[in-house]
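User: For a reading group we're discussing how well predicted structures match intuition. Take Winged helix-turn-helix domain-containing protein. Before you show the prediction, I'll give you the sequence so everyone sees exactly what went in.
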Amino acid sequence: MNDFKPLDPLLHSQLRLAVMSLLLSVESAEFTFIKEKTQATAGNLSVQLDKLSEAGYIRVEKAFRGKKPVTTCQITEQGLEAFERYVNALKGYIE
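Assistant: Thanks. Here is the predicted 3D structure of Winged helix-turn-helix domain-containing protein, as structure tokens, for the group to look at:
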């Protein structure tokens, strides 16, 4: 019998999991890039980024490029570890 580990509810959301997966493969990503890749609405994406940021899974930096606001996201060490735990727990369900 498998020893099922609980799945992190924060990462078990389709959009938050997509964001984390995207950020794993890049050094950082701008909000517009993440929005385009996930096909999320700006409002929903913003809420989900806030949740990931509050958990310490991502770092969100807001700046300006000229007069235009730019939001950049980056996965943290804590987020990387949480993602690895999530993937390992998921493997327990399918092996």
